[in-house]
Amino acid sequence: MIKYKENSQRLINVLLISVLAILLLFCIFKSNKEIVYVDNVKLFDGFRMTKEMKRTGEKEFNSRKSILDKLYSDLQSPTVSDAEKKQLMQQFIQGKEELEQFNQAFGSEQSSKIWARIKSYTAEFSKEKNYELVIGTDSKQDVLFADEKIDITNELLVYINKKYEGL
């Protein structure tokens, strides 16, 4: 009888320890992290850095375009000789090509810089908010369904703009 009680107590102890171990493991591996999403277009367009880069690019573009407009105006002038027109036309064509190259290169370079900054800020934001995964989508076309409750676009936009401003 005593041996039976000892075996029963051992069995109960082993079961209790096992249950506690399982609960402990569950608590350790259970994370409070969430999966959320943002609208990439809204995030990019609303980021202050994007707006600043766009203004800078527009100033440079308009400056270069005004030079082309002046060349075009000179080409239309009846007082310009054929030799001058030929030279102006070459300058105009070269200027137009340079403007197109500038426009493409500037947009691409600045977009890369802006996305790098957004990703950096989003990593910090995700750590602070304990997000495990932030999915970026273009107007929800890549995500077939997402509950509006997990859309953090506006919250992240406020955060990255504050970070950008140094706040």
Automatic annotation (TrEMBL):
Pfam family, one: OmpH
Transmembrane regions listed in the UniProt entry: 12-31
Cited PANTHER family: CHAPERONE PROTEIN SKP
Cross-referenced InterPro entries: Chaperone_Skp, Skp_dom_sf
Lineage top rank: taxon: Bacteria
Lineage, uppermost ranks: Bacteria, Pseudomonadati, Bacteroidota, Flavobacteriia, Flavobacteriales
SMART domains: OmpH
UniProt cross-references to SUPFAM superfamilies, sorted A to Z: OmpH-like
Protein name: OmpH family outer membrane protein
Keyword Signal: yes
The keyword Transmembrane helix belongs to this UniProt entry's keyword annotation: yes
Family: Belongs to the Skp family.
Coiled-coil segments: none
Keywords recorded for this protein, A-Z: Membrane, Signal, Transmembrane, Transmembrane helix
